[in-house]
């Protein structure tokens, strides 16, 4: 067992695709929550494997993509403060804000450093005691425990110059918001595999209970995704929507309690603005009172400015599953990975980048 | 020995001479370099190839090599990819103040070993020292000159419909070895860079058939980018099969973990060749005899349809278009 080949086996994939084709009786529309799912679907040609009656829509599961323009503007404002070092994940520096980007601010002299984890940011804070090191933290329940751990470590070490701008988000409420809007009729959701490693499947039970559609938690290999589609098709055909785990090697119903304890120790729920969805109460994570010293929002308040969205960019619609990347007029013409207009074309987990990189624009 | 490079080592004065005479000269010596004139003087017959490249890799020491070995192999390979036999290299080092002399010596030793293995001489060079913070430890530039034997015409523009595409071995080894060493990503891995000079492999391929159409080393941007360059330059389509592309187990696992596709990951000791269909099997058989070509395989072919486009039949069966690498390779966040 090498844990890779088994999940990329073409014979099994063919059988699953065949099963899906024989089971579907009508048109069904599924949303894959994660950008990672969209990538795998495009990379392995899963759209061509499943019958045309199964339509796949991308969802909001790309941390860079759902970061709101206003929050990018805030990060840029922080980067322009004297004595500040901004640290963050690579993709976010290329996302356009209202008037600039972190990349632009860097070229103008801002000290902005790309790191792979919050631990690196801690290291930079230790090495630069005379500067304020702010970590722009984006991500979901998957990333939050690592950031919480960094903040706890900073407190333990008495590291006074480390701050976190928390743009962390909680996924179940975004799904609820999309289903509540009801703009696009969905027959099932391919649930976020990595997020559920932490949260478990229970926070998603509401999808079947309140909205009568299924949710199958999926891994990121092609067979994981095909199996999840198969299970959703079966649920639709038998009229028994439920929440299932098709990623047993990673996800337990109860999730990872230790990781959640870390999150609860450092953060508290707060409202958050999601690109495309808007303000969703309780769907963000804010640094709590006990760790307030490390909260960049409290230490460096930035007066809010109205954000300016780029005309014609449909990232918001794409992240709600209302539009496909190819339905955006800017796709591949004005907006490319080299000159992205919206974050969905920037991030390696972005739906537009997945479509572009895997040649969907040439179809 | 903790002696560090001082700004004075770059002053052109006594310490500069010391550095050259104690470290560079004894290790890299040859009659042309030893003259220490302002330029190296040599005679060369026939058609020459000339190339230059700068090396700023970080970290400077990595599993399977270091910046010195890379600086020799990279330039040797750039010459080889035009069918040239590499002869001479220049070596220019930009050193950050405070860099340890012992580390510099270790790198020069590695340059010596790589040059000997490739059969090239370093015949001219330069060192500069910059203030701390103005360079990241050590930057190296090498330029190289080689001779192209008559009858050889290799170019990215020479692919023709029906040609076969050959890959010399596993892909992604260098890029993943480097990534495994980066701050914050460091993971335990047996991965090693494939950094190697390919001039002898190319010479053996040319022995089998001087009619190799295209040859390129898929460095940054990986296999996907090189194939796209061929397709665009030659105005042809290229179809490859994912199943045929060799990828080492560790590289695949690391790529899956980080959400990367090995066809975009850098290589430093691999080549892609486009050859006439009748030559392909013989060339692959010959390549397999060289340690840098042991896993050589035919991975696809050139088509007249869809000029400029590279398509890959995925492991699961469907085909997809393969574009060049755009942006940077970054690990997934979620």
What does this structure look like?
The complex is a heterodimer of chains A (363) and B (334). Chain A has three domains: 28-59 and 172-236, Rossmann fold (3-Layer(aba) Sandwich); 65-170 and 255-299, Rossmann fold; 315-362, no CATH class. Chain A has 17 helices and eleven strands. Chain A has helices at 10-23, 35-43, 46-49, 63-66, 69-79, 102-107, 118-127, 144-157, 171-181, 193-199, 205-211, 222-238, 257-266, 296-299, 315-319, 343-346, 351-357, and strands spanning 28-34, 54-61, 84-88, 111-114, 132-137, 162-166, 188-192, 214-218, 243-245, 267-274, 278-287. Chain A has a five-stranded parallel beta sheet with strand order 2-1-7-8-9. In chain A, helix 1 (10-23) runs parallel beside helix 12 (222-238) and helix 2 (35-43) runs parallel beside helix 17 (351-357). Chain A starts with 9 loop residues before the first helix and ends in a 6-residue tail after the last helix. Chain B is α+β, with helices and mostly antiparallel strands. Chain B folds into two domains: 7-148, PurM-like, N-terminal domain (60s Ribosomal Protein L30, Chain: A, 2-Layer Sandwich), CATH 3.30.1330.10; 164-322, PurM-like C-terminal domain (Phosphoribosyl-aminoimidazole Synthetase, Chain A, domain 2, Alpha-Beta Complex), CATH 3.90.650. Chain B has helices spanning 14-28, 31-34, 67-80, 101-118, 173-179, 199-208, 222-234, 249-258, 277-287, and strands spanning 47-55, 61-62, 65-66, 85-96, 121-130, 138-148, 164-167, 212-216, 237-241, 272-275, 297-303, 310-313, 319-322. In chain B, helix 6 (199-208) crosses helix 9. The longest helix of chain B has 18 residues, at 101-118. Chain B is globular. The mean pLDDT of chain B is 93. The A-B interface holds A 2-4, 8, 10, 13-14, 34-36, 39, 42-46, 48-49, 61-64, 89-91, 94, 115-117, 119-120, 123, 138-140, 142-143, 192, 194-195, 220-222, 336-338, 346, 348-349, 353, 356-360, 362 and B 182-185, 249, 252-253, 256, 259, 261, 309, 311, 314-323, 326-334.
């Amino acid at each position: 067992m090498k844990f890779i080949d088994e999940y990329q086996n073409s014979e099994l994939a063919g059988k699953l695709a065949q099963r899906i084709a024989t089971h579907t009786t009508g048109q069904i529309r599924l949303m894959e929550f994660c950008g990672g799912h969209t990538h795998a679907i495009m990379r392995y040609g899963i759209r061509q494997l499943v019958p045309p009656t199964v339509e796949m829509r991308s969802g909001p599961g790309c941390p860079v993509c759902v970061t709101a323009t206003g929050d990018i503007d805030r990060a840029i404002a922080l980067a322009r403060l004297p004595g500040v070092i901004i640290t963050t994940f690579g993709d976010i520096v290329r996302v356009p804000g209202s008037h600039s980007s972190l990349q632009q601010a860097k070229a103008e002299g801002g000290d902005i450093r790309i790191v792979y984890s919050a631990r690196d940011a801690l290291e930079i804070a230790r090495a630069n005691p005379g500067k304020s090191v702010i970590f722009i933290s984006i991500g979901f329940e998957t990333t939050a425990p690592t950031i919480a751990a960094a903040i706890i470590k900073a407190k333990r070490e008495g590291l006074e110059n480390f701050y976190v701008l928390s743009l962390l988000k909680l996924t179940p409420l975004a799904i609820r918001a999309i289903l509540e809007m009801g703009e696009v009729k969905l027959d099932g959701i391919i649930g976020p595999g990595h997020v559920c490693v932490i949260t478990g499947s229970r926070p998603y039970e509401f999808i079947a209970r309140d909205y009568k559609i299924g949710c199958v938690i999926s891994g990121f290999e092609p067979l994981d995704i095909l199996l999840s589609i198969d299970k959703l098709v079966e649920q639709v055909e038998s009229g028994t929507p439920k929440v299932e785990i098709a990623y047993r090697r990673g996800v337990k119903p109860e999730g990872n309690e230790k990781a959640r304890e870390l999150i609860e120790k450092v953060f508290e729920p707060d409202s958050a603005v999601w690109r495309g969805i808007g303000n969703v109460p309780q769907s963000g994570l804010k640094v709590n009172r006990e760790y307030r010293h490390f909260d960049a929002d409290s230490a460096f308040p930035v007066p809010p400015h109205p954000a300016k969205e780029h005309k014609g960019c449909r990232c918001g619609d794409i992240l709600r599953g209302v539009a496909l990347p190819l339905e955006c007029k800017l796709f591949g013409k004005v907006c490319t990975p080299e000159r992205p207009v919206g974050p969905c074309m920037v991030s390696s987990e972005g739906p537009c980048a997945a479509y572009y990189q895997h040649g969907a624009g040439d179809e | 020995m903790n002696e560090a490079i001082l700004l004075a080592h770059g002053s052109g004065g006594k310490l500069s001479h010391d550095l050259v005479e104690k470290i560079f000269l004894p290790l890299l010596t040859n009659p042309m370099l030893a003259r220490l004139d302002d330029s190296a003087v040599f005679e060369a017959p026939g058609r020459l190839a000339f190339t230059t490249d700068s090396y700023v890799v970080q970290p400077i020491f990595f599993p399977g090599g270091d910046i010195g070995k890379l600086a020799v192999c990279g330039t040797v390979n750039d010459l080889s990819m035009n069918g040239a036999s590499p002869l001479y290299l220049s070596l220019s080092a930009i050193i950050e103040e405070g860099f340890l002399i012992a580390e510099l010596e270790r790198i020069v030793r590695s340059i010596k070993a790589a040059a000997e293995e490739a059969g090239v001489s370093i015949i001219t060079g330069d060192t500069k020292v910059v203030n701390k913070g103005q360079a990241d430890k050590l930057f190296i530039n090498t330029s190289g000159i080689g001779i192209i034997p008559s009858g050889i015409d290799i170019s990215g523009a020479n692919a023709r419909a029906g040609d076969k595409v050959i890959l010399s071995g596993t892909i992604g080894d260098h890029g993943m070895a480097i990534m495994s060493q980066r701050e914050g990503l460091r993971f335990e891995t047996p991965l090693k860079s494939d950094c190697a000079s390919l001039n002898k492999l190319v010479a053996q391929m040319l022995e089998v058939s001087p009619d190799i159409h295209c040859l390129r080393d898929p460095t940054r941007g990986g296999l996907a980018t090189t194939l796209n360059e061929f397709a665009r330059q030659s105005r042809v389509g290229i179809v490859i099969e994912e199943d045929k592309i060799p990828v080492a187990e560790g590289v695949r696992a690391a790529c899956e973990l980080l959400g990367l596709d090995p066809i975009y990951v850098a290589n430093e000791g691999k080549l892609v060749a486009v050859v006439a269909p009748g030559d392909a099997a013989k060339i692959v058989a010959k390549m397999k005899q060289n340690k840098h070509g042991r896993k050589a395989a035919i991975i696809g072919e050139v088509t007249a349809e869809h000029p400029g486009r590279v398509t890959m039949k995925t492991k699961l069966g469907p085909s997809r278009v393969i574009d060049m690498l755009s942006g940077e390779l970054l690990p997934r966040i979620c």
